[in-house]
Amino acid sequence: MEMISSLKLCLHFSIVNLAFVALALSDSLRPLGRHTPPTGTLRVTGEFPDPLVFYHFFVKPGEPLLMKNVLTAENFPAYAKWNDEYLREKYGQEEVQVEQGKKENRSEKYYEFTLSQFLNIYNKSNLYMVHDIPKQMAGDVYLPGSLQCGGFEKNLDFSVMWFSSGETKSVLHYDGADNINCLLDGKKEFVLIDKKHRDLVERDGFVKDGTFSTVDVEKVDLDKFPGLKKAPWYEVNMTKGDCLFIPFKWYHHVHSLPGRNLAVNHWFFHLWWFNNSDCERANSAGPLESRPLLEFTKASELELVRSQFLSLFEDKSSISAVEFLEVVSCPRASGVKMFKFLDIDNDHKLEWEELYRFKMDDVMETFHDCIPTLSPPSTYDNKGQFDDTNDDNVNNEKEDLDVNNNANIQDVKDSGGDTNVVLETADKYSMGVEKYAQAVVKKADSQDDSHDEL
Fold first, then answer.
1. Domain named JmjC: which ranges (predicted)?
2. Less CB within 10 Å around the terminal CB: N or C of the chain?
3. Rounded CA separation 186/162 (Å)
4. CATH superfamily, domain at 43-299+390-453
5. pLDDT tens digits along 188-235
6. Sequential DSSP letters for 335-368
7. Tell me, which fold does domain 306-374 have in CATH?
8. Tens digit of pLDDT for each residue in 269-300?
């Protein structure tokens, strides 16, 4: 009897231990962000903020902003027009880049389809279209008034469309540029982590050259990525008509929910100074309205180099020669000459207006030994990441795919298991920024209590 009792006791403890093991495993292998409740709430508005408000309250401090129900047929024609029939009839022959699989893998190839070919099969395949907006389609895409003065309009980078039948999942990553993402159709869920938690996010399994984590976003192994359990995070739920500002270097993961999912985003190089006089001129005829993307010019990559260079002085109101030489890595003689070159008014200090007036190519040519690490990358892909490789076979290998071939179609349709895909207004100048913000930024939809109202 004693032996039987001992066996029962051992069996009991074994079952209990197995239960604890199973509980530990289930706690570990959860989707990204589900190990702890979200921390805090994001600010929400019901309109595109004025550029001055947008810069001082969101871009400069690096604070995300959810803009609810801001897309209309007037300020973003693509929102009303871009159903499948319209896209097929008007832009069907446009060539687009399509990725295979719906869970991001940054080593995946992309294929070239016509838009018509993609529209014919995307609802019954494992495809995701990630493509720079072609010039022919840019007339339907409008740039929000928030980005039309102050310097934003001179730092616009890629605008990209993201199109799928849903269930796409991005890696956890950050972008080297600020970003406004607008949802034309469907729903998206975002996990956002403040860049100040870099040590937690990047301590394990982070590809620094690619600015992304190797964590499985569907099953986070906390033994391999313990920092992610401690990292505070924000949850953002977007529905069609919403836009989201994601500050540069904020870590984020994007999940597109099932169903037709179409988004457009605008990347712009980070501004370290806002040109008030520029906006005074732009606003002289009244509040800024959204305008066609075609009316704006994409910035040179050298403006990214400027943004990187000016990050050295981000906490300064002005820069003395001593401060300049302390942070610029180059021989002292070259540094002195560079300071004098930049000091246009010869007052022995650099003001931000001066730092945004010089031509970056002149500086790079004359003072290349002062900014050796800030030369433009050889390529810049359409996901906000810089790719320093010239090998087309590494990350952006292109292949033509005959979508009329049934075998190829079936291959693409059936490839989902292990193959992955990349995601994705009162006179403000006399009132002051804070009072102006309180006067014009509307409250969000009262039914949406998942975010803090601004």
1. 122-285
2. N
3. 11
4. Cupin (2.60.120.650)
5. 999 999 999 999 999 999 987 778 998 999 899 999 999 999 999 999
6. HHHHHHHH-TT-SSEEEHHHHTTS-HHHHHHHST
7. Recoverin; domain 1 (1.10.238)
8. 999 999 998 888 877 777 789 999 999 999 99
